[in-house]
Design goal:
Blueprint (H helix, E strand, L loop, with lengths): L2 H15 L6 H8 L3 H11 L7 H12 L4 H8 L2 H13 L7 H14 L10 E5 L11 H4 L6 H6 L4 E5 L13 H14 L6 H16 L4 H5 L12 H15 L4 H18 L2 H13 L33 H13 L8 E3 L2 E3 L23 H13 L10 H15 L11
Antiparallel strand pairs: 1-2, 3-4
Helix pairs in contact: 1-3, 2-5, 4-5, 4-7, 6-11, 7-10, 10-13, 11-13, 11-14, 13-14, 13-15, 14-15
Length: 419
């Protein structure tokens, strides 16, 4: 660690102690712009043997319990790096050098599990229903959902998942270690939108390190320092993927892609279903090309939002349009020849009862033809070489032919012809 970094950290430690109460708010706002200080604090945390580590952890804890929102977020941005340092020291079984980091993590945990009055908090999460649109999905894109009795009974019902109350911890052990770290990472993910780029980079890097240390992929990644395997829980890996998914669309595509591959690699080795499901879902939803987002602003996921106002297309088929279409058909002038032409053939429709049914339109009833129209159609039938064999016209034409043949053969039928 350079002397310049040491001087910056020492100045920061003494500055806050002499700060008046009225200036805390403006001081907290100016902290996020001090990139040199933040970089120096990362170097202190990464050196467990540094003499400045203990006062830095104490100062960060004072920030967190001060109640100032900006100071709280300033401490949260170092949480991924603090977790990695604690897990790395725990894997090497040198717990004495991680006492201040463990105390800081436990202090933040014990502050977060209670409210302002000191009662245990119960966190609730509402699972959205797929039958209702959200910023992530449209019900129409999922497909047809059968309206069964069971589906209708569940429509509109929201499922709520509760987390807590969490017990207070006085020390971290192998049994409760990842229960505490998972909850801390959940608190970190709740403030992801306020985290700077350096914190997102740290999250992706420590996620890769935790998942591949002690495995053959560590040689591929060329990670040095910790060679033993670090045990992880399924819930902790899901929380890591939550932060990694945010980093994809906020300027850290390459690091996030590498971290997601490493988490998926570890989940496959451990056969954890939850991280496998989340990692594969994230991988399937990513765009084909890398997103070259700028560091100035955040990226957002483009989704299609259902319009609030109902819109009817001009070409939509409604009852009024059907009525108007029907009225136009009635207003059309009648032609002398009601036969329909199809290509070069004239297709008649003849009735033996001297009533020819005109080809029915949309909802139109058949109209009776006059006697002269029937005779005209009969003349057309005689000139037609090959009449259409339609399912409706076929019986009628055969009957008319049989009557004509009987008359041509000289058979005079008295009265009505029976068929």
């Amino acid at each position: 660690m350079l002397a310049v970094d040491t001087g910056v950290v020492e100045e920061w430690l003494s500055e806050f102690k002499t700060l008046p109460e009225a200036s805390i708010s403006s001081y907290a706002t100016s902290l996020k712009d001090k990139t040199a200080l933040i970089s120096s604090l990362y170097k202190v945390i990464q050196e467990p043997q540094s003499e400045l580590l203990e006062p830095v952890c104490h100062q960060l804890f004072e920030f967190y319990r001060s109640g100032e929102e900006q100071l709280l977020r300033f401490t949260l941005q170092f949480l991924p790096e603090l977790m990695w340092c604690y897990l790395a020291v725990s894997a090497s079984r040198d717990l004495q050098s991680s006492g201040c980091i463990e105390a800081l993590l436990l202090g933040v945990y014990n502050l977060e599990i209670v409210d302002k009055e000191g009662h245990n908090k119960v966190l609730s999460f509402t699972i959205p229903s797929l039958s209702k649109p959200s910023i992530y999905h449209e019900p129409s894109s999922i497909g047809s959902m059968a309206l069964t009795e069971g589906a209708l009974s569940q429509h509109g019902l929201s499922r709520v998942v509760y987390s807590g109350p969490h017990p207070q911890r006085e020390m971290l052990t192998a049994q409760n270690r990842f229960e505490v770290l998972t909850f801390l990472l959940l608190c970190y993910n709740a403030a992801l939108s306020y985290m700077p780029a350096m914190s997102l980079q740290s999250l992706c890097q420590i996620s890769s390190r935790i998942c591949v240390c002690g495995y053959p992929r560590q040689q591929v990644r060329k990670y040095k320092g910790v060679n033993s395997r670090i045990p992880v829980s399924s819930e902790f890996m899901v929380q890591m993927l939550t932060g990694i998914y945010y980093a994809f669309y906020n300027g850290e595509w390459d690091l996030a892609r590498k971290a997601m591959d490493d988490v998926l690699y570890r989940a496959q080795l451990e056969l954890y279903p939850e991280p496998l499901l989340v990692a594969n879902a994230i991988k399937a939803s990513l765009p084909q090309g890398a997103m070259k987002s700028s560091k100035e602003g955040t990226r957002c996921i483009q989704v299609e939002i259902t319009p609030t106002s109902s819109r009817i297309s001009r070409n939509a088929v409604t009852s009024m349009s059907i009525r108007g279409h029907r009225w136009k058909r009635h207003e059309q002038p009648e032609n002398g020849n009601d036969a329909t032409e199809l290509g070069n053939f004239i297709i008649p429709e003849i009735s033996v009862t001297s009533v020819a049914g005109e080809r029915t339109g949309n909802g139109e009833k058949s109209r009776a033809l006059a006697e002269n129209d029937v005779q005209h159609l009969q003349g057309v039938q005689e000139t037609a070489t090959e009449p259409r064999t339609d399912s409706k016209g076929l019986p009628e034409i055969r009957r008319q032919k049989s009557v004509r043949k009987m008359m041509e053969d000289g058979i005079n039928s008295s009265g009505r012809v029976q068929f």
